[in-house]
């Protein structure tokens, strides 16, 4: 599957969740609205974060490919032009901030006695902002995917030419450093939902929050981190012997 499929599915679910959450609030089903809105906010922020990660990662991959392979300079110029516009970044950030603001004001409505109209107006504004942001993000994903496809086709052509000349390209081995960083991110990041539910949802009463499956995810990340560190040390020792 391509990135547009993943992002399209996430964007569709986000739009549906936003509409359902808004309808529950307007119809006065506040208890259900609170639960659905919480999930909607997490989904919305996740969708915008997915777009930002995709742009950053693909940009880095394309730059590395241009740096290490004999690719035409036009790809670098197109990549620089694409990132100079960066329309998707402000849209994604604005969409995430707006949904957080709506959620905070919704909680403050009962906590400090804000008028219900305040949350409703900000919620409607967040709805419009996120619809606009998703449209901008879809256009950016399509444009970026087109550039990625052209770079991939150019790399395939280079590999075919090398194979015809009897010089098949060597496959790069996975970088143990990248695995180590990713595993540590999983190890630490697994506790973020636990902390959020304890501090925000249950207001500091962690006895109401289960440590599962966050503990298991953290342990798995730590074990993978240990294996990656071992592989990294072996790689460094081999490089030291070769030098």
Descriptive overview:
α1 runs antiparallel to α5 and α6 runs antiparallel to α8 (214-242). The model has no long low-confidence stretch (mean pLDDT 83). 83% of the residues lie in helices and 0% in strands. The protein has two domains: 3-172; 173-243. It is flat and about 75 Å long. It is mostly helical and 243 residues long.
Instruction: Supply Rg.
Output: 23 Å
What is the number of helical segments per DSSP (H or I, 4+ residues)?
8
Inertia-based shape: flat
Mean of residue pLDDT?
83
Task: Break the fold down into its secondary structure elements and pairings.
Elements: H1 3-26, H2 30-68, H3 73-85, H4 88-111, H5 116-164, H6 176-189, H7 192-201, H8 214-242
List keywords for this structure.
83% helix; 243 residues; mainly alpha; 8 helices; single chain; flat; 2 domains
In short, what is this structure?
The protein is mainly α and 243 residues long. It has eight helices and no strands.
């Amino acid at each position: 599957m391509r990135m547009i499929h993943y992002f399209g599915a996430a964007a569709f679910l986000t739009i549906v969740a936003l509409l359902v959450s808004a309808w529950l609030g307007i119809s006065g089903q506040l208890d259900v609205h609170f639960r659905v809105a919480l999930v909607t906010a997490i989904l919305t922020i996740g969708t915008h974060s997915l777009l930002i990660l995709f742009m950053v990662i693909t940009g880095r991959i394309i730059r590395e490919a241009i740096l290490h392979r004999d690719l035409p300079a036009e790809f670098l110029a197109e990549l620089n032009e694409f990132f100079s516009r960066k329309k998707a970044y402000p849209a994604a950030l604005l969409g995430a901030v707006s949904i957080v603001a709506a959620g905070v004001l919704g909680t403050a409505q009962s906590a400090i006695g804000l008028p219900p109209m305040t949350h409703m107006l900000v919620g409607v504004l967040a709805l419009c902002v996120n619809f606009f942001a998703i449209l901008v993000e879809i256009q950016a994903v399509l444009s970026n995917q087109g550039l990625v496809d052209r770079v991939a086709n150019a790399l395939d052509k280079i590999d075919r030419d090398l194979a015809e000349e009897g010089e098949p390209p060597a496959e790069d081995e996975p970088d143990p450093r990248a695995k180590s960083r990713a595993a540590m991110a999983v190890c630490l990041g697994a506790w973020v939902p636990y902390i959020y539910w304890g501090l925000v949802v249950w207001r500091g009463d962690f006895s109401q929050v289960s440590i599962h499956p966050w503990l298991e995810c953290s342990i798995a990340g730590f074990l993978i981190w240990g294996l990656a560190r071992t592989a990294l040390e072996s790689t460094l020792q081999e490089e030291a012997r070769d030098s």
